[in-house]
Amino acid sequence: MSIYDEYSEQYRLEELEISERAETFLSFTDKEIITLARQVLEEEESEYIIEEYDLVGKILDYYDKSRRISDKQRYCLCRAIAEMDYFFNEHFDIEYFRKTHLGNEE
Predict the structure, then answer these.
(1) Which of 12, 15, 84, 88 has the most C-beta neighbours closer than 10 Å?
(2) Sign of the CA dihedral 66, 70, 74, 76?
(3) Does the pLDDT at position 4 exceed 90?
(4) Closest CA to 69 of 102, 20, 33
(5) What pTM was computed for the model?
(6) Three-class SS state of 68
């Protein structure tokens, strides 16, 4: 296996993990997603980690004006949350995430 093939496989696995986390975050309420998206935008180096950093900011601005988001916008925000979470947390535990980032005791 060449270095390129190894890199491609690693990238594919990272993308799969991020997508799975984003799907999990879609189960959160709009309010929770908005709260988390605001937090990730404030994180150090988030503009380098989040693929659609500018778009996330625009979606949050739109939400502030209209108080609603579409399904595509929800997924974009969840994807940004997942990208940051993947970068900082190798192992994913949704209940631990809820407690530490949202203060929920569900």
Answers:
(1) 84
(2) negative
(3) no
(4) 33
(5) 0.83
(6) coil
Residue bearing tokens 């108080």 = 67
Query: What whole-number distance in Å separates Cα of residue 75 and Cα of residue 84?
Result: 14
Dig out the tokens for 67 from the structure: 């108080």
Q: Record the tokens describing residue 63, joined without a space.
A: 């939400």
The radius of gyration of the chain's CA atoms, rounded to the nearest angstrom, is 15
From the number of C-beta atoms within 10 Å of its C-beta (0-12, 13-18, 19+), residue 79 rates as buried
Whose CA is closest to 17, among 87, 96, 71, 72? 87
DSSP conformation class of 43 = S
pLDDT digits (tens, 9 = 90+) for 36-57: 999 989 888 889 889 899 999 9
69: nearest Cα among 55, 84, 52: 55
93 and 28 Cβ atoms separated by less than 8 Å: no
